[in-house]
Amino acid sequence: MNTIEVKNLKRIYRTTTGVIRRKHKDVVAVEDISFDIKEGELFGLLGPNGAGKTTSVKVLATLLIPDAGEVRVKGLDIVKDANEVRKQIGFIFGGERGLYWRLSGIDNLRYFASLYHVDPDLSKKRIPELLELVGLEGRGDERVQGYSRGMKQRLHVARTLLHDPDILFLDEPTIGLDPVGAREFREVIRNLQSEKKTILLTTHYMFEADSLCDRVAVIDKGLIVALDTPSALKKHVRDLSVVEIETFGIAPQKVDEIRALPFVDALSTREQDQRQVLLVQTERGAEAVPDLMSALDGMRVGRVTVREPTLEDAYVRLVGGKV
Ligand SMILES: Nc1ncnc2c1ncn2[C@@H]1O[C@H](COP(=O)(O)OP(=O)(O)OP(=O)(O)O)[C@@H](O)[C@H]1O
Ligand SMILES: [Mg+2]
C-alpha cells in the first residue's frame, strides 16, 4: 500500500476584493493533482512561485480542506479521519515561528512534548535522541535566542518528531538558510531518510531535489507537468546542451527574439553578480554560439560557456522558463 495517495485533488481559495463594492474572486490554487508516495520514500514537489505546492502540502497536513478529490494517508481519509491522520504526521513550513526563544532547546522540546501529550518518561528518553538526530547534541541547554537560523530550523524538526510520526511534510525547509546551514539541514533530511520516514519535501532548489529526492513531481499552475526520478527527468534534456552567455543587461524584447530562434529549445535568464546570464537550451551545442552572438547584434558579453544539462534545465523546459 502507498503511504500517501492523492487523487484528483482540487483546492480553491475564495477571496474578496474591493472595499465598498465587494467582489468575490476564486483563485484555483490546485487544479487537479494526483500522485502516490511509497513508504520510506522521499518525494519532492517542485514548481515556480504560486504553483500550488504549499496549498497541496497544507491539504495533506489536514490544515486545509480540499474542494474535490481524495487524499489518503496510510489509508485514512484526511477529512473524515483528520484526527487519526494528525497522529501519523509532522510538518514544518518555511520561515515558521513557534519556538520560545527565551527557553533552551531542551525546554522547548519538553514544553511541546507535554502539549502533545507525549508520555513524560518517553519524552525524557526521546529528547536527547532527537537532539542528536538533528545535530544539536551538546547545544540543547542553550537558549534558542542564541541559535543560528539553521539551528532553529533543526530544532523545529526535532519538535515535529516528538510524537514520532512516520510521515513528514517539509515545505521549503532550507529557505533563508545560508549555504552551510542548508547543507547541514540536508544532512538532517538524510538522517530522517535512514530512519525510514516517508517525506514530502517542497523546494525551489533543483540541486537539493536532485541530491535528496527519490522522485520529483514538477507542478505548475495547479497541475503536475512531470513526475519521475531526478535522473529520468534529466533525460528529457539529455540531447541538449546549455549555452550560458553572460551579458551586462539585456532588453526583454531581445530575450524574446532569441527564444524564438528556430534552434533554441528553451531559454531562461539568471541574475549573477549584477550580470544577467542567458541560459539557452539547444541541440546544436557549441555550434549555436556564433548564431547566438549575431542575434545579440554585437552586444558586449562576458563569459560564454557550453555545458551539459542539469535537473534545473529539465525544470526550465517543463515550466517554460519561469524561474
Ligand atoms: N490564503 C490565500 N488566499 C488566496 N489565495 C491564495 C492563498 N494562499 C495561496 N493563494 C494563491 O494560490 C496559489 C497557489 O499558492 P501556493 O502558496 O500554494 O503556491 P506555492 O507553489 O507554494 O508558491 P511558492 O513557491 O511561492 O511558495 C497562488 O496563486 C496564490 O496566490
Ligand atoms: Mg509555498
Task: Provide a short characterization of the protein structure.
With 323 residues, the protein is α/β, with parallel strands linked by helices. It has helices at 53-60, 82-88, 105-115, 120-133, 149-160, 179-194, 206-212, 230-235, 252-259, 288-295, 311-319, and strands spanning 4-17, 23-37, 42-46, 68-73, 76-77, 89-93, 167-171, 198-202, 215-220, 223-228, 241-247, 266-272, 275-282, 301-307.
How would you describe this protein?
The structure is a single chain. The model has no long low-confidence stretch (mean pLDDT 92). The chain folds into 2 domains: 39-58 and 75-217, 3-Layer(aba) Sandwich (Rossmann fold); 236-319, BMC (bacterial microcompartment) domain (Alpha-Beta Plaits). α3 packs across α4 (120-133) and α5 packs parallel to α6 (179-194). It is of the alpha/beta class. It has 11 helices and 14 strands. The strands form 3 sheets. It has a 6-stranded mixed β-sheet with strand order 6-7-8-3-9-10, sandwiched between helices. The protein has a 4-stranded antiparallel β-sheet with strand order 2-1-4-5. Strands 12-13-11-14 form a 4-stranded antiparallel β-sheet, with helices on both faces. It starts with a strand and ends with a helix.
**Beta content:** 25-35%
Low-confidence stretches: none
Number of helices: 11
Order of helices and strands: EEEHEEHEHHHEHEHEEHEHEEHEH
List keywords for this structure.
323 residues, alpha/beta, Rossmann fold, Alpha-Beta Plaits, 2 domains, 6-stranded mixed sheet, 4-stranded antiparallel sheet, 11 helices, 14 strands, 30% strand, binds adenosine-5'-triphosphate, binds magnesium ion
